[in-house]
Amino acid sequence: VQTLYEEQENLLSSHMSAIQENAQLLTEEGMLLSDVQGDAVVDYDIDLYALKLDHILEQKEHTIKRLRKQLALFRRRCQDEESASKNVDHVSFY
Question: Residues 58-80: pLDDT tens digits?
Answer without folding.
Answer: 999 999 999 999 999 999 999 99
